[in-house]
Amino acid sequence: MKVDPSQRARLLRLGIPLLLAWGVAWLLGIAILAKVAIDLRAELRETDLDTELALYATTVYGLTWFDEAGVFHDEILRLEKELLDAPYDIWVVEPGNPPTRHFSPAHPRFNLTDFTQLQTTVMGQGQDVYLDGQDTDGKPYRLHAIPTFMDQGDTSTPKAMIITVADPTPGQAAYQAFVQRIVGASALLGILGLLVGVGLTAWSLRPVLASLRQRERFLSATAHELRTPVAALRSICESAQRGDEAPQLALTRMDGLLRSATHTLEDLLLFARLDAGASLERQPVRLDLLVEALLPDDDSVTLDATATVVNLDPRLATVAVRNLLENARKHGAAAQSHIHVTVAGAQVTVEDQGKGFSAELLARRETDFALSPTQGGTGLGLAIVNMVARLHGGALRLENRVEGGARVTVNFA
């Protein structure tokens, strides 16, 4: 169904805040998750590298020693080819002037010449040190230094420093690639979430749109139903004022029109209450007697009914049956048209000898009978009957009889 500009503007005013709230919450959640993942990956990157540096430094500490004469022994360390070929520079430096390098890489990867900055912490305080820096060639490095002691003699004072140096660039490259993947995945999830938000917003606004359409149909139908009696009243008043019609006759005609308009207004208000979700007051009712009480005293309607008790709302059921009878009388083919009513179980069937229903109206027999000003007077009555039936858990069915006329069946259960 086409949405007019005023409805579209109202829906946008309702939908945009919903979409913005969803979008902000979704994107904020994705951003927080991405930030947590990136931070954890950064911690792991640094922790992994520091763990390896500490492992190598500890290994060197276990494979080397200083004897009681202060002589450094690295014989066992030099037998470990895999350790010496690892992508790290290993130094054992004893501070002094100049410092003594007891062990150094054969082919250093970093141009490091001065370790005096480590002496205070490592040698003076006996603590491990992790340090980032750049060598004299500007190449970045990650450094780990621990103290080593003599095996005999003064074993409480550090004798030298074991220094392991690694290149943090590969880890940083992997970290950058991870960050790019996380950002890309977050952007994709953000777009997907926004699309889902658009769908959810549209879905959540469907009842609002249906309500707006129903309200506009209701207002249009109200104007349509009241336009004719208002125009007739105006015509009668003008005729009486000109003296073309006797005042008493004019008042009688106006009284009839006002009664009809009042009945129409009552039906419109009932439809509005039902559409707003009226509650049922069910009770056991003899449906055959309820229908019989609504029939006229003349012979224009025949009743074929069996005694049946149905648990329904008698007030609403009365309105529904009355509307079916009025429609049948209104759309009969002639004054002598006969109406036949059948009551069986929770079902009431009304048949007339009129022209029957239009193809458009019959096409709606499996869906709701929407209130519309274009249904030639049947819209309001059938809309009310259909809504009453659906509130009872039943349905309304329209048919055209083979021999001519219409058949309307309402089931209250």
TrEMBL record:
It is found in: Membrane. It holds the Pfam family HATPase_c. Its EC number is 2.7.13.3. Keywords: ATP-binding, Kinase, Membrane, Nucleotide-binding, Phosphoprotein, Transferase, Transmembrane, Transmembrane helix, Two-component regulatory system. GO terms for molecular function: ATP binding; phosphorelay sensor kinase activity. SUPFAM superfamilies: ATPase domain of HSP90 chaperone/DNA topoisomerase II/histidine kinase, Homodimeric domain of signal transducing histidine kinase. Residues 221-413 form the Histidine kinase domain. The keyword Transmembrane helix applies. This is histidine kinase. It comes from Thiothrix fructosivorans.
